[in-house]
């Protein structure tokens, strides 16, 4: 569209000016501050990258890194996954608008109020006193129920039967995967054979995971991290196998879950109320993340719902007529069609997750190893004696972490712009 | 006869198949509502009751009114000049919503439909500014404000919120405005319309739904903010927004759940009203139009 | 359509315009007759309400018509102060719950000395211990009008009388009593360290009291100033002593970890335990959560007894308080400081809530401390006497240390210790953070800790 040279700049000027003053200038200053010690005081001294090295040497910062990673993986997948699920499901019911309002509502309340709500859910009272937190209340109720003799007997039996079944199906699934691997290998389809071997490996990891639930890892953060990787790998493996191996996979998964569930209830029949926010390293982080999921899922759902409704119904109908079941329609028609929206919302959520600080600040302020980078930065910035340099270094590091996700988002712009 | 039986079984089967669907949805909705419901019920219970029993026990005797009290709300609402804070929140939030959206709309239009050198790069920078965490801007900006003499004023706060909100708003608005049909502009250009005319007569009216939903988003965000107001305006009671007043109500010692819960609800009232009365803009997914691929 | 839209636009602009013109949208500080000073405070809830009443009393009696604008910022105090000082826009006054922060600001030149501002009378009425606390490099920067005593043990009187438990006079006797009560099948102690973002602080109070009793004030000072490293075996003993008491607390270590500090004293009244070590402020909690109990009848207090370091002398007093300091030298500031340090202001303040101790030395404890019903509040009166008559007085150690340690790694060390983590490793980590956070102290710097 033809324009006189200066016209665009007229439209852009207010925005660019404000952004320059309010965001660019502080960022530049933060970078400069990170290269000094005590920048805002008379005794400032240039130290180059020393603050950055200092930061990485700090156990508190490493914990914050780990937690940010956990937040990233769990919260993003949960909010986008739940949002997608809700978008698809709600499309089929008449009370869609009402349900959407319910799920979206947490976005309307401040993070402080949300944190108060969830702190109340997690509230702890000593075992001798009545529980006032919802989670502990449910736990105590479950305990009373699980301790009745009839339920005890049923659970023991169930744990036994399902445990045996799980082992059976596991064996069958494993055998099937191995057989397929061998067959592919023999057919010279080495790559697919290798893939099947990988799947068998995942099944094995899955078994570790099941065992790992009961065992406690040795103390020391490296061990914990390895266990965590194993658990994640195992859980992932279970899911993949369950989805891939259509005959025995789901049965194995189902019976495994039931057995574990029964076992868990039995073992915990002496339930005690827990101070959820003090249980580290995973429970309390998860508790905080759940609060975040509660707030943000509505946002994802709304965005994905619009994209879902944008899918031409002929495509879905055609797939259904061709005999595809709902699951296949979902994976092979719905998801590919919504790919770009999914990408956009995922990166947006990732950015918000990495900037998260309110929830942690209000609920625990990083106590019990729940620290996240944004909160860590603030605490460092405002401690006494103030460590502006180190805090600024942490801020720059945080921003650099987020940048790749922005780049992904922006690359799509590039592609779009090229077409215009 | 057989026809009717077949129709019966078909409807029955459909109903049965629908049960998991409704089951999942209803379960999720109940899960979502429960924490808030717990908070709401607790805000009406006296302190002694809260520490003696879980809030779910009120359902054992749902109509026994003696287990409820309005004392908590009385304390929150009538003892702390909360009405001044309410007015302050309005004074802070309304301009902080209108200003950024106006400015973002102009910029978004330029990015969407005007061609100029460096457009892509500039756009990427603007959107890239989303990564900047708020807290690092406080000291440099406050220094600037002090030098300009605008610290402690609402005006400075409006500008700050505008700055913080712009990247995301420009991003979303540009997506939407860029998605408008090209022919619209082309035919208007042929008719001799200038950019200004197209912007005011064409783009703005068409963008009302998106602008409305973004305005709600920005409104909620600014209304619920505490720390930005605290830094740029200060904590004096006369100029505190409602979030600050309520935060100060809650003692630093221990867990006064009866005050915490009622204060939380009072702080939630306006956002919830705004949300429920305008939720169709969100729920119909118009917001999403700006995030489509 | 057009008119509707332009109508909407006009309405929006009108609202904007109205808001700009409405009063209050301009500067936050009002222009009044007398001078106006700003006071940024961390007080919240009831404390804030009480403080505001004292402020109003000040304004009412101020001869020059000085007004005080109280800006309540809650736990964001460090953030607000740092930002405003760095931005060249400090408030006129503030209260420091942590002397360490006050020292920091004083050394960097942000605070103004107040020794010239205080009148001779008021100055002479401040207790020496607190004056020393507010002195940095020879000049006075802050006074402490209201304080608390921390070395107190609250106990369930009926059980003590019923079972004939003696009030222990020494630290050894206290431990012996703990053993005896445990042998009777009752949990001797109620301890709770959970406190949201500040979890762990009650444990630090325990250890500071024990430090004064086992090793004395010189050790305590050296420990707080980081002249001795955290890996010193005596520091390890402090942790071990605390864990001993935690093991003898209701529910053991896990319950100590999980229980909120404000909830823990309730165990005294439901049969869970018989003793609870906590500062004077807990009185308010006990009354509110157990309104039917009567001080002196259902519960009473004895001072945490002396240890080997006192060699037969009276118990040392561990205390806390808020230091009031000034960033500017306006006349209104001097006026307020003189008011808040005077007996009149403090008498009013302590009337508003039980458990606070006024530091003005002209106040007679037996007279000024009264309960809400008018009866003398012997518990607080005795605490006040203990505080003023203490041979050895020390301020809460964790509040004196740099915040990265005192409000950071020391707290998490308590939590880690209760979780069963190896003590040597915990101490190494605290030492590492101390090395970084302290700017002075003989043990600061990469001196190298062999066991780490």
In short:
Chain A has 420 residues and is an all-alpha fold. Chain A has 17 helices and two strands.
Could you describe the 3D structure shown?
Chain A has 420 residues and is mainly α. Chain A folds into 3 domains: 7-50, no CATH class; 51-122 and 275-419, MetI-like fold (Orthogonal Bundle), CATH 1.10.3720.10; 146-270, no CATH class. In chain A, 75% of the residues lie in helices and 1% in strands. Chain A is built from 17 helices and 2 strands. In chain A, strand 1 and strand 2 (45-46) form a beta hairpin. In chain A, 43% of the residues are buried. Chain B has 2 domains: 2-73, no CATH class; 75-289, Orthogonal Bundle (MetI-like fold). Chain B has helices spanning 2-42, 47-52, 71-78, 82-113, 119-128, 138-148, 154-178, 182-190, 195-223, 227-233, 242-249, 257-283, 286-289. The relative contact order of chain B is 0.13. The mean pLDDT of chain B is 81. Chain C has 452 residues and is α/β, with parallel strands linked by helices. Chain C has 2 domains: 36-148 and 320-390, Periplasmic binding protein-like II (D-Maltodextrin-Binding Protein, domain 2), CATH 3.40.190.10; 152-315 and 395-399, Periplasmic binding protein-like II (D-Maltodextrin-Binding Protein, domain 2). Chain C is built from 20 helices and 15 strands. In chain C, strand 1 (36-41), helix 2 (45-61) and strand 2 (67-72) form a beta-alpha-beta unit. In chain C, helix 9 (201-214) packs across helix 10, helix 9 packs across helix 11 and helix 19 packs antiparallel against helix 20. The radius of gyration of chain C is 24 Å and the shape is globular. The model of chain C is unreliable at 21-32 (pLDDT under 50). Chains A and B meet through helix 1, helix 3, helix 4, helix 5 and helix 11 of A and helix 1, helix 2, helix 4, helix 5 and helix 6 of B.
């Amino acid at each position: 569209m033809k324009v006189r040279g200066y016209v665009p700049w007229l439209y852009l000027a207010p925005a660019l000016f404000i952004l320059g003053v309010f965001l660019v200038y502080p960022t530049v200053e933060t970078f400069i501050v990170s290269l000094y010690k005590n920048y805002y005081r008379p005794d400032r001294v240039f130290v180059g990258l020393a603050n950055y090295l200092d930061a990485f040497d700090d156990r508190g910062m490493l914990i914050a890194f780990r937690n940010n990673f956990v937040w990233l993986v769990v919260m993003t997948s949960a909010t986008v996954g739940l949002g997608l699920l809700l978008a698809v499901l709600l499309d089929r019911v008449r009370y869609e608008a009402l349900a959407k309002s319910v799920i979206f509502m947490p976005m309307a309340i401040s993070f402080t109020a949300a944190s108060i709500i969830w702190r109340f859910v997690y509230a702890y009272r000593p075992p001798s006193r009545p529980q006032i937190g919802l989670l502990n209340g449910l736990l105590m109720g479950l305990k009373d129920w699980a301790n009745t003799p009839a339920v005890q007997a049923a659970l023991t039996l169930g744990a036994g039967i399902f445990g045996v079944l799980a082992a059976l199906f596991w064996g069958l699934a494993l055998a099937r995967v191995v057989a397929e691997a061998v067959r592919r290998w023999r057919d010279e389809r080495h790559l697919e054979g290798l893939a099947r071997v990988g799947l068998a490996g995942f099944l094995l990891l899955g078994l570790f995971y099941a065992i790992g639930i009961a065992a406690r890892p040795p103390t020391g953060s490296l061990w914990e991290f390895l266990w965590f990787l194993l658990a994640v790998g195992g859980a992932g493996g279970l899911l993949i196998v369950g989805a891939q191996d259509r005959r025995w996979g789901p049965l194995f998964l189902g019976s495994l879950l039931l057995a574990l569930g029964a076992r868990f209830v039995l073992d915990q029949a002496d339930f005690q109320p827990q101070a959820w926010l003090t249980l580290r390293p995973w429970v309390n982080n998860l508790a905080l993340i759940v609060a975040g999921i509660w707030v943000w899922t509505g946002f994802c759902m709304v965005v994905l719902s619009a994209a879902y409704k944008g899918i031409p119904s002929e495509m879905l109908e055609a797939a259904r007529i061709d005999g595809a079941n709902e699951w296949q329609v979902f994976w092979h028609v719905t998801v590919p069609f919504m790919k770009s929206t999914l990408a956009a919302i995922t990166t947006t959520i990732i950015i918000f997750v990495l900037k998260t600080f309110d929830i942690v600040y209000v609920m625990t302020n990083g106590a019990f190893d729940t620290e996240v980078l944004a909160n860590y930065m603030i605490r460092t910035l405002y401690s006494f004696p103030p460590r502006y340099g180190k805090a600024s270094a942490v801020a720059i590091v945080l921003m650099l972490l987020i940048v790749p996700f922005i780049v992904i988002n922006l690359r799509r712009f590039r592609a779009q712009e090229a077409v215009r | 006869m057989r026809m009717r039986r077949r129709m019966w079984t078909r409807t029955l089967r459909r109903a049965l198949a629908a049960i998991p669907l409704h089951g999942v949805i209803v379960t999720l909705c109940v899960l979502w509502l429960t924490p808030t419901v717990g908070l709401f019920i607790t805000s009406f219970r006296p302190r002694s009751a809260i520490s003696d029993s879980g809030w779910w026990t009120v359902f054992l005797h749902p109509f026994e009114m003696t287990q409820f009290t309005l004392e908590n709300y009385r304390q929150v609402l009538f003892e702390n000049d909360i009405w001044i804070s309410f007015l302050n929140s309005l004074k802070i939030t309304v301009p902080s919503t209108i200003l950024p959206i106006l400015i973002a709309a102009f910029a978004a239009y330029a990015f969407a439909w005007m061609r100029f050198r460096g457009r892509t790069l500039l756009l990427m920078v603007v959107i890239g500014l989303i990564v900047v965490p708020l807290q690092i801007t406080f000291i440099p900006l406050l220094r600037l404000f002090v030098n300009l003499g605008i610290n402690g004023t609402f005006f400075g706060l409006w500008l700050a919120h505008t700055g913080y909100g712009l990247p995301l708003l420009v991003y979303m608005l540009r997506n939407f405005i860029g998605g408008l049909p090209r022919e619209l502009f082309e035919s208007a250009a042929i008719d001799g319309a200038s950019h200004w005319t197209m912007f005011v007569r064409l783009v703005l009216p068409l963008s009302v739904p998106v602008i409305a939903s973004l305005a709600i988003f920005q409104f909620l965000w600014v209304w619920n903010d505490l720390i930005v107001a605290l830094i740029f305006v200060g904590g004096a009671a006369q100029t505190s927004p409602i979030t600050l007043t309520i935060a100060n109500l809650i003692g630093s010692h221990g867990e006064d759940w009866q005050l915490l819960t009622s204060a939380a609800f009072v702080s939630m009232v306006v956002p919830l009203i705004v949300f429920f009365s305008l939720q169709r803009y969100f729920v119909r997914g118009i917001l999403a139009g700006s995030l489509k691929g | 359509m057009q008119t509707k839209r332009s109508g909407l636009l006009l309405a929006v602009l009108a609202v904007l315009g109205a808001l700009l013109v409405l009063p209050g949208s301009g500067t936050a500080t009002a222009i009044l007759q007398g001078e106006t000073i700003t006071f940024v405070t961390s007080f919240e809830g009831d404390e804030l309400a009480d403080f505001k009443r004292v402020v109003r009393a000040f304004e009412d009696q101020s001869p020059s018509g000085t007004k005080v604008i109280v800006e309540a910022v809650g736990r964001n105090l460090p953030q607000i102060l740092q930002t405003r000082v760095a931005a060249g826009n400090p408030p006129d006054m503030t209260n420091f719950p942590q002397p360490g922060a006050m020292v920091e600001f004083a050394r960097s030149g942000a605070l103004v000395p107040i020794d010239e501002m205080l009148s001779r009378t008021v100055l002479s009425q401040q207790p020496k211990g607190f004056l020393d606390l507010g002195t940095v490099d020879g000049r006075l920067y802050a006074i402490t009008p209201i304080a608390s005593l921390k070395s107190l043990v609250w106990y369930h009187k009926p059980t003590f009388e019923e079972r004939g438990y003696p009030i222990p006079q020494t630290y050894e006797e206290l431990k012996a009593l703990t053993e005896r009560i445990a042998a009777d099948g009752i949990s001797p102690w109620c301890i709770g360290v959970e406190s949201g973002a500040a979890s762990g602080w009650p444990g630090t109070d325990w250890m500071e009291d024990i430090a004064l009793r086992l090793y004395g004030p010189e050790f305590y000072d050296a420990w707080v100033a980081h002249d001795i490293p955290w890996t010193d075996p005596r520091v390890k003993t402090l942790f071990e002593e605390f864990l001993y008491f935690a093991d003898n607390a209701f529910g053991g270590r896990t319950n100590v970890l999980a229980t909120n500090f404000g909830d823990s004293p309730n165990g005294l009244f439901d049969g869970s335990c018989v003793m609870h070590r906590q500062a004077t402020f807990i009185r308010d909690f006990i009354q509110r959560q157990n309104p039917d109990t009567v001080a002196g009848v259902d519960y009473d207090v004895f001072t945490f007894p002396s240890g080997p370091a006192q060699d037969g002398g009276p118990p040392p007093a561990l205390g806390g308080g808020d230091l009031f300091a000034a960033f500017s030298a306006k006349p209104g500031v001097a006026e307020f400081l003189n008011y808040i340090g005077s007996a009149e202001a403090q008498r009013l303040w302590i009337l508003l809530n039980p458990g606070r101790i006024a530091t003005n030395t002209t106040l007679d404890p037996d007279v000024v401390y009264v309960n809400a019903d008018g009866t003398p509040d012997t518990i607080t009166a005795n605490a006040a006497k203990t505080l003023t008559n203490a041979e050895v007085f020390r301020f809460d150690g964790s509040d004196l240390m740099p915040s990265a340690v005192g409000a950071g790694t020391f707290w998490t060390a308590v939590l880690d210790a209760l979780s069963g983590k190896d003590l040597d490793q915990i101490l190494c980590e605290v030492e590492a953070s101390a090395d970084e956070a302290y700017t002075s102290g003989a043990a600061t710097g990469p001196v190298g800790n062999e066991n780490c």
